[in-house]
Automatic annotation (TrEMBL):
Organism: Pseudomonas fakonensis
Domain of life, source organism: Bacteria
Keywords: Signal
Residue span(s) of domain NodB homology: 178-289
Keyword set includes Disulfide bond: no
Pfam families membership: Polysacc_deac_1
Protein name: Polysaccharide deacetylase family protein
Signal peptide: 1-18
Length: 372
């Protein structure tokens, strides 16, 4: 066991992250070990779970006004915030239990945690006993998780008036929590791009790697691509869901039903083998009263819980490092990349290279897409 007693210089105040940036990653080079075995994946996983649990615990000390100020909002939907916090705690507890299974091989970050109360107590104090081997990781991880938590709480604070991927609106929706431990699903949105674009390079790369994912296509872009030539070969070996006819919120759009009908009919007609009955709402925004229509179309909402944020200032490597950190934190989930943008493929290449020996698995897209 490499844990040695060391004290941190101090804790960041709760107000330091009051206005978090929209895009945040964590440099994985600050973690002193490669994830080249399942046991070392678990070590890093336990560390990230405890780091996030620490900031989640800290956030509970804020009253309603202080929380609103921290999130940059005038008011917050406190019941939803509390419900999301409770769900996050449950996921952390489940994840930590899974990650403890390898403690016999490597006891780093293995603490006597036998209940949710134990996890909360350990989260509040663990940073004072991390050890010199991990000192360079502790504070950057704390800052990342503070900002990442603010992303989640800001969405919770305005939910369901503004819906997002932070929570489900019905039990028929999927968000990755239904996967098994260490299993991840690759998904891609915003495409397809024109012929010869990053979509082509990415699908070809996935086939060469013998990997598959779900491509949620926009109906208008799909039609443009189909009008220019066949699309079956583009998505060979992959799965295709829909994202609506245009990339716009389907929560307030009066034509949202027609958007889904047109997109669904287009993809089903042109790609009957690759089509899966899933809808990825742009921005995660969908209608709370749309369940009956979705059921009539035999569609399910497919959300995500690991966003690569490859549509902003993060480099491809920083985007991949963000994904890896969240994979360690949640230990399963639906990863979202944007195939029409050039960062997705190099980010995925980095991710696959750095997790090749970690013992994770990639979910079969057809099995996920057709699951009842």
């Amino acid at each position: 066991m490499r844990i040695a007693t060391a004290l941190l210089a101090g804790l960041l105040s709760l107000g330091v992250q009051a206005a978090p940036a929209d895009f945040v990653s964590l440099d994985r080079n600050l973690w002193p070990e490669q994830l080249d075995s399942p046991a070392l994946f678990d070590v890093a996983s336990r560390a990230e779970i405890l780091s996030f649990a620490r900031v989640l615990h800290e956030s509970e000390m804020l009253d309603e006004q202080a929380l609103a100020t921290r999130l940059g909002l005038r008011q917050v939907n406190l019941p939803v915030v509390r419900a999301v916090r409770a769900r996050l705690w449950q996921r952390l507890w489940t994840s930590y239990q899974q990650a403890q299974r390898s403690c016999g091989q490597d006891a780093s970050f293995c603490y006597p945690v036998a209940s949710m109360a134990d996890l909360r107590m350990q989260a509040a104090t663990f940073a004072t006993d991390v050890g010199t081997f991990y000192t360079g990781w502790v504070e950057p991880s704390h800052q990342f998780h503070s900002r990442y938590l603010d992303e989640q709480l800001r969405k919770a604070a305005v939910f369901p008036q503004t819906s997002s991927e932070v929570d489900k609106l019905s039990s028929r929706e999927r968000n990755g929590e239904e996967l098994n431990d260490r299993m991840f699903l690759l998904t891609f949105v915003g495409g397809p791009g024109p012929e010869g674009s990053s979509t082509d390079a990415l699908t070809d790369y996935l086939r060469r790697q013998k990997l598959e994912g779900i491509f949620f296509v926009l109906g208008n872009r799909f039609k443009q691509r189909r009008d220019a030539g066949p699309v079956a070969s583009l998505y060979a070996g992959q799965c295709v869901g829909i994202q609506g006819w245009e990339y716009r919120s389907h929560a307030q759009w009066q034509g949202w039903q027609d958007s889904l009908r047109r997109s669904q009919a287009q993809v089903q007609a042109d790609l009957p083998e690759q089509y899966v009955p899933l809808f990825r709402p742009p921005y995660g925004q969908r209608r709370s009263d749309g369940e009956s229509f979705m059921a009539s179309q035999q569609l399910r909402v497919s959300l995500w819980d690991i966003d690569a944020q490859d549509d902003g200032p993060l480099s491809a490597e920083a985007s991949a490092q963000r994904v890896m950190t969240l994979m360690l934190l949640w230990r399963k989930g639906v990863i979202q990349f944007r195939d029409s943008l050039p960062k997705a493929q190099p980010a995925l290449e980095w991710l696959l290279q750095h997790t090749a020996q970690s013992g994770i698995g990639w979910e079969d897209c057809q099995a996920y897409g057709l699951r009842e």
